[in-house]
Every structure is written in structure tokens, then in C-alpha cells.
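Collaborator request, handled under Task 6.
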Amino acid sequence: MNARREILLPYGAREVTAQVPDANLQNVYVPQVVKSSSDPAAEIRRALMEPLDTPPLPDIVRPGERVVVLVDDHTRTTPAADILPLVLHDLRLGGVEDDDVTILITHGTHRLSTEEEVRRKVGQPVFERFRVEQHRCTDEESQVYVGLTSRGTPVWLNRIVVESDRCIGIGHVGPSPYAGYSGGSKLILPGVAALDTINANHSLVTLGFRQPGRVDIPCRLDIQEAGSFLPMDMVLNVVLSQDERVTRAFAGTPDRVFKAGVAFARPIYEVACPPDLDIAVTSALPYDIDLYQAVRAVEYADAVVREGGSILLVAACPEGVGGDDFYQLMASCHQHPDDYLRDVVRRNGKVTFSVLGYFLARIKTEKNLHIVTDGIAESDLVAIGWHRLASLQQGIDSLLEHHGSRAQIGVFPMGSSTIPSPG
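C-alpha cells returned to the collaborator:
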């Protein structure tokens, strides 16, 4: 009897398991294990006291100044509720009154958070004590034009940010399929930018297709240029461990923090992997709230699956495909990659959706996409061209039967945060 190995993949709040023949299992690929800080508050205080290219926060602000603090939204795992009290403490040391502080959640094109999601994000004490607002990218009355990038992106930003005296950002540095890595000025663009600005910037994403982890791609460079039009006075970014706890914190100017964060993050998230796998099995957690978010795991797996191979996505998707607009786009023209490019050029709806549609359409012309999920109706999966598998075990068995007894399988239990580096 052929020896088999059990694999475990996170799926929502639980795990799913399957047995894979040793002869077929190339490897299980995960980010490097790093220890989380034994005292995350102390690590954050250290970063705030030793900022890169800026004075400490109490020396930046002045009494009477209006301060906006940007935090990422409910789809991101930055522990803002733990970080905010330390930042707000330093603002008070600088003489800033609570009434002069606004906390702005930077949604980009994401849906707004529910009240419960906001409470969890900022923490109950902060929610009760401070003004908390949510950015709406389609609310043109709340936006101010600040400039045009060299790549032709007109930049409109939330009025609260433009009219504040000081701007502080809280986020994390981690893998980003569109921008190489998150962090730095992404809190500005797409965070608090107008839909038209995000659309123009994200039209550049197509130029970075199948270049995971690169930060010299046009989209990322455009984000940094847009951020320079209204530079944040200080950014605090954290790099997280596999259990989503703080392992290192960086504070300072957006560019310095981003560079330092990426230098620390690369050895963690970029994992050597052969470039010609027959099958990739990948979990989308923690970005599995819907298919729109979960697809980042597919984009990373695509980098190391051969043409004609298969990608099996494991994602709970409790919110389904990801909104009616995304569903309609995916279901209407999924056969033709160039249809999505026309939508990108014409700025039809959210370009983010069209870009993702283009990527998926390109992938589907070369590879087979399968999914294990309870959150998406069968009819919806059929409409957007995905194949549902009854279980992880059934999926692996059927894919091995399809690809043959010598098929090589790579397993990515943290597929949304594992950047495969062919090698």
C-alpha cells in the first residue's frame, strides 16, 4: 500500500483534512515560522520611540491641531485595537485633545464595515471615546483633488485627510497581489482615495500580472507617488506572525517604513517552490470572507502551476462571491480575457473587479480552477466558471485520477500569504 500523508488546511473557523500519497506530495509550503513578540505593546512603543526619518510622535503634533488617524478595514488583520491606544497616548503627550482626533477607516473600494466590525477593529474604548468615520470612495462631495501622478492618475482624497493638520497611519506589511506588498502609502491609495483615482491606479495592475512580490511594478510606484502629494506625518506598520500576532513594528515616514517592513517580510513570506507543479492545493484564510478576497491565494498558486495543471482553492466564503457587481462581471464575460481589458480601459464599474476578472480569465485559459466551499451556490459557481468539489479528499483524489499517478502536488495551507518563488 502506498504511504500517505495527512494534510490540514484552515477553513473558516475549522480545518479540513485529506490524505495525499507521499509519491505525489512535492511539499507543504508555508511562510517561515517567526516568533511573535512576547510583549507586542512594548514592541510598538519601541517603534514609536525610535521612528525612521521622523521625530517621535509627541514632537510632531501641536496643541490645537486636527489629527486624522488612518486604519485599515475589517478585511485586514492589522491589530488596530491594540495599536491605537498607544498612538493616541502619544498624541495626548503632544498636547492633542481627544475632540481634535478623527479615526478614519480606509476602505478603498471595499464595502463599509458593520458597527460590530468597527468596534472590533478600533476596540470598544476607542469606539466610545473618539470620532470614528468610514471612507466612502463613491462620495465625491467628501473628496478633494490634490494632483496628477506622472502615470496619469488623478488623485482625489477624503476631505478629512486633506483638511487635517496631521495624518497618522496604522497598517501592516504583508503580501499584496496588486502592489507586491501592503504597507506604507496604501493607506492613502487606495485607502482614502476616490473611486476614479483607484480605477486609474488599478488599471496599472495588469502590467504586474504574474510578478508576485515585486514592488517596482507601475501600480506600486504610482501609489507611492500619490502618497507623496499629501504625505502622512507618521506611519506605524507591523509585520505579523503566522497566528496574526505582532512580530515586528516600524514607525516613521511611509517610504522608510515600507522599505524596512518589506526587507523584514520577504524572507518570511517568499518560499522557494518548483515552477511546474501539476496541482496546487491552497487555502485562502484569512482572506476568505468572499471569493473576491480569496482569489489572492489562486494568484500566488498560479505562479508555480504548469499550463494544463489544476488549482484547488479551499475557502469558506461566508459572504459569497463578493457582491452582485463582481458576480455579474465574472458571469458575463469570463471566457475572454480581453473583454475585461475593455472594461479596464472604459472604467466600467470598479476596475479592481475587471482586473481580477482579467487575471482569472487568463489563468482559466491555461489551468483548471476548482473550489471547496460552503458559501457559494452551485449555480453561481457554474456561472463564473469554477468547479465545485464535494470535499478536499474527493478533490485531491479526482485531480490525481485526472493528472495521472505521477502528478506532483504542492500544498499551501496559508496560500493568501505565501509568495511562491520558483526555484
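The cover message to the collaborator said: "The longest strand covers residues 305-314. The chain is about 35% helix and 25% strand. Please let us know whether this matches your experimental observations."
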